Amino acid sequence: MKLTYNIKIIRVGKIKNKYFYNASKLYFDRIKNICNIKEIIIKEVKAKNFSTIINQEGKNIINKIDKKDFIILLDEKGKLFNSIEFSKVIDNICTQQKIPCFIIGGSYGNSQQIKNKADLLISLSPLTFCHELAYVVLLEQIYRSLTIIIGHPYHNE
Ligand SMILES: C[S@@+](CC[C@H](N)C(=O)[O-])C[C@H]1O[C@@H](n2cnc3c(N)ncnc32)[C@H](O)[C@@H]1O
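Above: inputs. Below: predicted complex with S-adenosylmethionine.
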């Protein structure tokens, strides 16, 4: 079953580790079979100062946000959801003709400006993951959510 839903992800930097890359490709392709997914990759900023990196990457991310986007920032201090609740978040945003736009920060995290702009902060766990692993977990959970929405047995297997 194919949904007309659109999902967007904005993230920082290439996936350099081949295992994370392969896992992300697996779930990205599965998601593509169910709905439209667009990804925007921001270049990693090189600077000596952490706050320069966070703020510049933050500005570059904000430039890619559109009016229809419902901004969901991934942050370990955000709200925790179970997979059914997470699928409802995605379903509700999409049925309101908005686009869930997931943002994953770079190695040093997210700027305060993005945190202020976000419509929702979600946590995948109270533990901190590298951004590559956070991306893989996010994709698996988006795929899981979509299977819940279309009634595919993946979540119950
Ligand atoms: C290495 S982490 C950045 C850690 C940084 N110290 C901070 O305070 O945000 C890189 C990115 O992965 C995502 N991330 C890592 N762990 C996460 C978690 N448990 N829940 C949600 N997002 C997470 C966030 O978007 C974060 O900005």
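The pocket of S-adenosylmethionine is lined by residues 74-76, 104-105, 107-110, 123-125, 127-131, 134 (CB under 6 Å).
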